[in-house]
Design a protein that fits this description.
Layout: E1 2-11, H1 17-34, E2 37-43, E3 48-56, H2 57-68, E4 73-84, E5 95-97, H3 104-110, H4 123-135, E6 139-140
The structure holds flavin-adenine dinucleotide.
Length: 143
């Protein structure tokens, strides 16, 4: 039973490039062990996290509960949850969206302005944005 979950949150003011690297390092290791795949997007300007998680229902559910308790972010909102037949992000234990490579026109395609604000658009639109990010090679695998 595979599921896909997408959430958004607001990064704590203390989140730095080092914090992000630490989160990605732990995510890569632990997700590999539990069969979870996905992509994490962090926008330093708007201090927004968006993450898509795919894997077994139990593994994704337990991980989401753990992430939601993490003090490095707040206002965690579930944007989308669905059972799936196949993964869309199977190539990454935890890929990272490179915001510097993000084309503003891609944001404009799904929202009123070229600012990443998942709180202002439907979950479906945020998921479509993630799929395009993969298709346009904006996702990198953290070291
Ligand atoms: P421990 O490492 O034992 O930590 C105990 C508590 O302290 C937890 O509540 C933890 O969240 C918190 N904590 C840990 N490090 C710090 C720190 N440097 N500063 C402040 N608090 C801290 N983990 C994954 O395994 N996979 C993911 O895909 C994933 N994605 C994440 C995305 C985001 C946006 C964030 C903020 C965190 C993510 N994490 C992810 C990390 C996750 O929240 C846990 O910290 C991690 O899985 C370790 O869990 P643990 O129970 O062993 O906590």
């Amino acid at each position: 039973m595979l599921v896909r979950l997408l959430y958004a949150s607001r990064a704590d003011d203390s989140v730095s490039a080092e914090t992000l690297a630490a989160i990605l390092r732990v995510s890569k290791e632990r997700n590999h062990d539990t069969g979870v795949t996905g992509v994490l997007c962090h926008c330093a300007n708007s201090k927004i996290f968006m993450q898509v998680l795919e894997g077994g229902r139990g593994a994704v559910s337990a991980l989401y509960a753990r992430i939601a308790r993490d003090p490095r972010h707040h206002d965690v909102v579930l944007l989308s949850y669905e059972e799936i037949g196949e993964r869309s992000f199977s190539g990454w234990s935890m890929g990272q969206v490179s915001m510097s490579r993000l084309n503003p026109s891609l944001l404009l395609k799904y929202s009123e302005s070229a600012v990443l604000d998942p709180y202002a658009v439907p979950g479906k639109a945020s998921l479509a944005l993630f799929n395009e990010l993969v298709a346009t090679a904006s996702v990198t695998a953290p070291g």
